[in-house]
Amino acid sequence: MSEKTKSNIISFLSLTVGAILAAFALEEFLVPCKIFDGGITGVSMILSHFTHVPLAVLLIVINIPFFIIGWKKIGHIFVLKAIYAISLFSIMSAVFEPMEDVTYQMLLAVTFGGVILGIGVGLVIRGGGVLDGTEIVAILINRKWGISVGKVILIFNAVIYSIAGIAFGINQGMYSFLMYIVTSKIIDMVEIGLESAKSVMIITDDGKELADQILKRLGRTVTFMEGTGHVSKGSKDVLYCVITRAEIFEFKRIIAESEGSTFTTIADVSEVIGNHIKSKG
Q1: Could you tell me the CA-to-CA distances from 81 to 66, 71, 97, 152, 169 in Å, in that order?
Q2: What is the CATH number of the domain that holds 255?
Q3: Helices H, strands E: what count in the chain?
């Protein structure tokens, strides 16, 4: 089986499982407690409450204009995956709707509903799709005016939660916003991965010994770069590598035990592409 075929299968499974989990969280936790999701899903939930049009129908109908825009402006593959994910999300919402609700306790609904929804949306994103047309608009706004996708979605959701607070009471608006925070964190964990990576840069007078220790104790390969001190004008070794959060403590011990002058920075890495970050030797 080719790598492309494996990738397509994984993408399809991720989109499918993610859409089903998101629909379950929506119908079994959020809708019964009038806790609203953001984006088009939140708009659909509010409209469904007042118009009595089935939520599953609104999820499809309201997203159609965004599909058309995305098809012309972003790309066919992305939009096809979004159409599949949102269609399955809508169908499964209709399937779960008549089932007995899991809980009416607000905090339980916020916590467990938010976690399950976050896992679902995160899997869909990892599969290369989206569950909400708002993200398509946010991408286009980012391209045209340079406003970040996250900021556009946050502004849109702030409006939705404000409407929810006015229409259903301030408590519902606050619970919905709290659920959004929980969901956002879980989406990040699923999209990036539970074993989040850290990039490390070390500036030192003698990098060979440090590189040897990092390789020996952490199994991490190191990239060497050359640098020059602004004040000292002397030659510096600049080391770069990627480690996991669990390896930070041991890495700091390696730096503390090293001789000579070192300057080290540790930063978050949102994604690692490639396989050559750890020695197999």
Answers
A1: 13, 11, 24, 22, 36
A2: 3.30.70.120
A3: 11, 4
